[in-house]
Design brief:
With 149 residues, this protein is α/β, with parallel strands linked by helices. It contains four helices and six strands, in the order βαβαβαβαββ.
């Protein structure tokens, strides 16, 4: 299974949190990272937080995304990963969400401990998980901030 964590791009300040939209810079960040992903990933499922800024980020890749309420709030990494079928699901899953949750998921994937790792706005963290000799192995394939996309 390939799992791509994508933090929403730069968003407006203020207002109700769930209603904040991307800034012009954020729209450009999302477009750049979305184009980078399109050139590398063919078949995938993409899920977004219900927050507007996450949905706008996901739409930069694909307008056909699902909404996962677990991506907005404090769902523990193991619970979120279970919802998306990790580690046994085949194919690629892209999750568009927020900090600190995505950083905790990244840490959990690598260390099995939910530490507060930082994920930059608009960046992706790409993981590949599989089994080798009966052991579950997770590899960090790429970390791509918008300026490198």
């Amino acid at each position: 299974m390939d799992l791509i964590l994508w933090r929403h791009a730069e968003a407006e300040q203020g207002g109700p949190d769930a209603d904040r939209h991307l800034t012009e810079k954020g729209l450009e960040q999302a477009k750049k990272v979305g184009a980078w992903l399109k050139s590398r990933v063919r078949e995938y499922q993409i899920f977004s937080s219900p927050a507007e800024r996450a949905k706008e980020t996901a739409a930069a890749l694909d307008g056909r995304f699902g909404i996962l309420k677990e991506l907005y709030g404090n769902a523990p990494p193991a619970s979120l990963l279970e919802v998306v079928g990790w580690p046994g699901k085949e194919g690629t899953v892209i999750l568009v969400g927020h900090q600190p949750q995505l950083g905790e998921v990244a840490a959990f994937l690598m260390t099995r401990s939910a530490e507060p790792w930082g994920v930059k706005k608009g960046a992706i963290w790409w993981f590949k998980t599989g089994r080798e000799g009966g052991r579950l192995l997770t590899e960090l394939v790429a970390v791509i901030p918008p300026k490198l996309a």
